[in-house]
Amino acid sequence: MTTIGEAAIGLLLLQAGGTANPLIPVVLMVVVFYLVLFLPMRRRQKKHDEMLKNLKNGDKVVTNGGLVGVVTALSDRTVTLRLRPDNVKLEFARAAVSGLSQEEEAKD
Q1: Global pTM?
Q2: 104 forms bridges with which residues in the sheet?
Q3: b/e map of 56-83 (b: 16 or more CB within 10 Å)?
Q4: From 17-21, 68-72, 90-94, the region with the lowest mean pLDDT
Q5: Which CATH architecture has domain 55-107?
Q6: Nearest in space to 66 (alpha carbons), one of 104, 99, 89
Q7: Residue 10, CB half-sphere, CA atoms under 13 Å: how many?
Q8: pLDDT tens readout for residues 39-50
Q9: pLDDT tens digits, one per residue of 97-106
Q10: What residue spans define the domains of the chain?
Q11: Fewer CB atoms inside 10 A, N or C side of the chain?
């Protein structure tokens, strides 16, 4: 008893006159390209979105520009950070937060 996949492969070989179909390598390259590039990128983006959603007051974060500060206020689209040494408060878009500070991650 043959499976549907074996039958499809047999049909492709028969259609190509006994030689391998030239589209098979192209399809395989697209699949590998997706698995190697797009899948990890989507996982990383989901993890970053989850981190942004779970931000809370007191978290020490790093912005895309390299500024390190402590979260003092949150809204839907913005986050207010207190920066040292003068305790300056700056407001950033949530998307500008690249991640938690290394010191914050070491505590967990």
Answers
A1: 0.65
A2: none
A3: eeebbbbbeeebebbbeeeeeeebbbee
A4: 17-21
A5: Roll (2.30)
A6: 99
A7: 6
A8: 899 999 999 999
A9: 999 987 655 6
A10: 4-51, 55-107
A11: N
